[in-house]
Design goal:
Strand content: 15-25%
Helix content: 25-40%
Structural class: alpha+beta
Oligomer: single chain
Strand order of the largest sheet: 1-2-11-10-7-8
Largest sheet: 6 strands, antiparallel
Length: 339
């Protein structure tokens, strides 16, 4: 339309054929108005497309990281993710909580990289966990299912990116992909077992303060190295009624301010626990994210995901075991039938 206006004026308007100063000024004004209208129209179209892309990204985020229920099998839950890419809602972090006959099973993971490029890997890992959490009687089986799903996804991605080669490139970028994964299983009695592949262990929040759940060394991340033959789960003690677990990705601890100082995550958690001896998951989530954004000036350089679970179950038996130990399980955890 704007082009038609400019051409019609140039060809049919007598004023456009004149060479005087006044005629030139009018002609310039007409073409300036036409150019301005064209720019405004293009801008509106781009903004409309951007809104549509964000809506699609939001739908993809909800499909991948489904909103968790506030309560699940006696656990009070709150979770959220912050993407490092400005304006994006999809990142490279993943989490899920599922109630199964084997206990409440939790996954927290971090895909190498962030943004749109990590969506496929997140989908492969989460999809595998949602199936394996119900099917596998122990965490070892769940972890091996995740490892196979990731390997299959990376092979397919390598073939799609280099279809002419016929085989994955050992020096290509796909060969360097990895995922850190933390698996937890919370039994009906509050006993917590875990398997960790390169991910930070959670913090335990209680009325007495903040402490690491365990101090065991994690296994290597999934992807670059094969899993060992034996995968004994780690006994993490018990999550007592009123206590909470704080799970996070390393973007929380690695966030820096303008002077290069790391975010003091433990201090932020201690402040929250000091104000609320009975940790409220939503309050913990909001306080930590507020402090982190204040520390980084609102521009974190890596994706951050946080998951908080508080045990709201009624005490059923006295406390057993010692918290903070990291002893491998000698027997497989027995299933508990509950809904």
């Amino acid at each position: 339309m704007w082009g038609a206006i400019a051409i019609t004026y140039k060809l049919t308007c007598p004023l456009a054929q004149q060479t005087g100063l006044g005629a030139r000024i009018v002609t310039s004004a007409v073409f300036f108005a036409v150019g301005t209208g064209l720019i405004v129209q293009v801008r509106r179209s781009l903004l409309r497309e951007l809104r549509q892309i964000r809506q699609i990204a939001g739908a993809a985020q909800n499909a991948l990281l489904r909103p968790l229920p506030p309560r699940l099998d006696g656990l009070h839950i709150a979770a959220a993710q912050l993407s490092a890419e400005r304006g994006a809602v999809v990142g490279g972090d993943l989490y899920e909580v599922i109630a199964t006959e084997h206990g409440v099973r939790v996954v927290m993971g971090d895909v190498r990289g962030h943004g749109i490029a990590a969506i496929g890997t997140v989908a492969a890992v989460l999809g595998s966990f949602r199936e394996a959490a119900h099917d596998e009687p122990d965490l070892e089986g769940v972890l091996r299912r995740l490892d196979r799903a990731l390997a299959r996804h990376l092979r397919e991605r390598a073939r799609s990116e280099h279809p002419a080669s016929g085989a994955p490139d050992p020096d290509g970028p796909v060969a360097e992909e990895f995922v850190t994964v933390l698996l937890l299983e919370i039994g009906r009695d509050g006993e917590v077992r875990g398997l960790n592949c390169g991910h930070p262990w959670p913090y335990l929040l209680s009325g007495t303060g903040v402490e690491p759940l365990v101090r065991a060394d994690p296994l290597p991340p999934l992807g670059p190295f094969p899993l060992p033959t034996e995968l004994p789960s780690v006994c993490c003690g018990q999550l007592l009624p009123g206590e909470a677990l704080f799970l996070y990705t390393d973007g929380a601890e690695d966030a820096r301010d303008a002077r290069g100082r790391f975010f003091p995550l433990v201090d932020a958690l201690a402040e929250v626990v000091g104000q609320h001896p009975l940790p409220v998951p939503q309050s913990v989530l909001g306080s930590v994210f507020t402090a982190l954004l204040s520390h980084t000036g609102g521009t974190p350089t890596d994706d951050v995901a946080i998951l908080v679970l508080r045990n709201d179950r009624k005490p059923a038996c006295p406390h057993q075991g010692t918290r903070g130990t990291a002893l491998p399980a000698t027997t497989r955890p027995q299933p508990t039938n509950h809904r």
